[in-house]
Amino acid sequence: MQIGNGNKKQADQTADPSKYPQGHFKDKPCRCCGKLFKPKAPSHLYCSQDCADVGLNNRYLKRNYNTDYNNVKQMYEEQNDKCFLCGTEGFKMNPNAKKNLVVDHCHTTGKVRKLLCHNCNRALGLFQDNPDVLRKAADYVEGYK
C-alpha cells in the first residue's frame, strides 16, 4: 500500500562505484527492514522497492501527521478501505494519488482521527471542524426533507 506519490525506483538508482574513493559500495542495512544489502548508489537506502515505498510513506506520514505507515495500514484494515463517515470507497483527486482515502486529523492538536474520502474531509474543513455548525447543518438538512 502506497500513500504518497512515490520516489525514484530502486532500479533507477545507480552510480559508477569506480568514481568513489573505495571503488565499491559497502553493504548497509535497509532503513526499513534492517536487512543487509549491496547498494547501487550512495543514496540507495532500501533493499527493495517495497521497502523504499514504505520508507517514503513513513517519512510523509511522520512529517504531515506524526504517525506511521503501520498505523495507517491498520486504519485501512479496520475501516475495510471505506470512508469512516459515509462508507464509500472514495475517489482519487488526481492521477498520481495512490489511495482513495485521506488521513483526517485535527488541525488544533494534530491528532490523527480516521480515514475519510475527499468529500467528507473537505466538508469537515469547510465547517471548520465546528461540531455546533455541523449539528445545525444536520438539523437544517433533516428539516427540509
Explain how this protein is built.
It is a single chain. By secondary structure, the protein is α+β, with helices and mostly antiparallel strands. The protein folds into two domains: 7-65, no CATH class; 80-145, His-Me finger endonuclease fold (3-Layer(aba) Sandwich). The protein contains four helices and four strands; from the N terminus they run ββααββαα. The model has no long low-confidence stretch (mean pLDDT 87).
Distance between the termini: 40 Å
* CATH fold assignment of the largest domain: His-Me finger endonuclease fold
Query: How many structurally independent domains?
Result: 2
The CATH first-level class of the largest domain comes to Alpha Beta
Give me the count of strands.
4
Strand content: 5-15%
H-E order:
EEHHEEHH
Main structural class: alpha+beta
CATH superfamily of the largest domain, called what? His-Me finger endonucleases
Sheet having the most strands: 2 strands, antiparallel
Quickly give the CATH architecture of the largest domain: 3-Layer(aba) Sandwich
What is the topology, as strand order, of the major beta sheet? 1-2
Radius of gyration: 21 Å
Shape: elongated
Counted by DSSP, the helix tally is 4
The low-pLDDT segments are none
- Range of helix content: 25-40%
Q: Averaging pLDDT over every residue, what do you get? A: 87
